[in-house]
Design goal:
The complex is a heterodimer of chains A (about 120) and B (about 120). Chain A is mainly beta and about 120 residues long. Chain A has strands at about 5, 10-15, 20-25, 30-40, 45-50, 55-60, 60-65, 70-75, 85-95, 100-105, 110-115. The chains are: A mainly beta (about 120), B mainly beta (about 120).
């Protein structure tokens, strides 16, 4: 069964600190892995996307890593800001037999950055 | 312009009403998606349109009826909904959505639907 699990479920950090979010997946056949940021009541916004051959991808203060062998990914946030408070969703793309890709969403990590 | 717009932002309807959700993008994307998201849960895929044809229907009840009038527009027609259908309905689009592609799915802000 295609699944994406994220940890921790929720996290509180002080402004300016770094944090790392984890994602484990059992999705096959794997196409790519994405991290999205979702503010409450809004649609998700793409942060990074990585294919099988990519180990790391950065977008400003966000750095994602991918270990395709162990099927693990992480999202590292540097020098956190209050605006980083949101849900971070790991999404793995699976190739399905209709020729399209289907996104399998994790349950997300709710991050709260405290002043 | 990397924006996906959705109207209305909020919708309250009775179980006997007929309403429609609208989604629009002008990025030239040929794949468009409807997702349903319950509170504190990840989005669940409902439908995928590719080149204006319905490509994926994730066993969604017939009270939800999608329509793609052209490559920029996606509608979701609602009829005889149940209170448990209350959720955030997200529209997304991507370049093609084909297997193996890495094109990003751009999400709209969603329509918050409440069924009374």
């Amino acid at each position: 069964k295609n699944q994406v699990e994220q940890s921790p479920q929720s996290l509180i950090i002080l402004e300016g600190k770094n944090c790392t979010l984890q994602c484990n997946y059992t999705v096959s056949p794997f196409s790519n892995l994405r991290w999205y940021k979702q503010d409450t009541g809004r649609g998700p916004v793409s942060l990074t996307i990585m294919t099988f051959s990519e180990n790391t991808k950065s977008n400003g203060r966000y750095t994602a890593t991918l270990d395709a062998d162990t099927k693990q990914s992480s999202l590292h946030i540097t020098a956190s800001q209050l605006s980083d408070s949101a849900s971070y969703i790991c999404v793995v793309s699976a190739m399905i037999n209709t020729g399209f890709q289907k996104l399998v969403f994790g349950t997300g990590t709710r991050l709260l950055v405290s002043p | 312009d990397t924006e996906v717009t959705q109207t209305p932002k909020h919708l309250v309807m009775g179980m006997t009403n007929k309403k429609s959700l609208k989604c629009e993008q002008h990025m030239g994307h040929r794949a468009m998606y409807w997702y349903k998201q319950k509170a504190k849960k990840p989005p669940e895929l409902m439908f995928v349109y590719s080149y204006e044809k319905l490509s994926i229907n994730e066993s969604v009840p017939s009270r939800f009826s999608p329509e793609c009038p052209n490559s920029s527009l996606l509608n979701l027609h609602l009829h005889a909904l149940q209170p448990e259908d209350s959720a955030l309905y997200l529209c997304a689009s991507s370049q093609e959505g084909l297997a193996g592609s890495t094109d990003t799915q751009y999400f709209g802000p969603g329509t918050r639907l409440t069924v009374l």
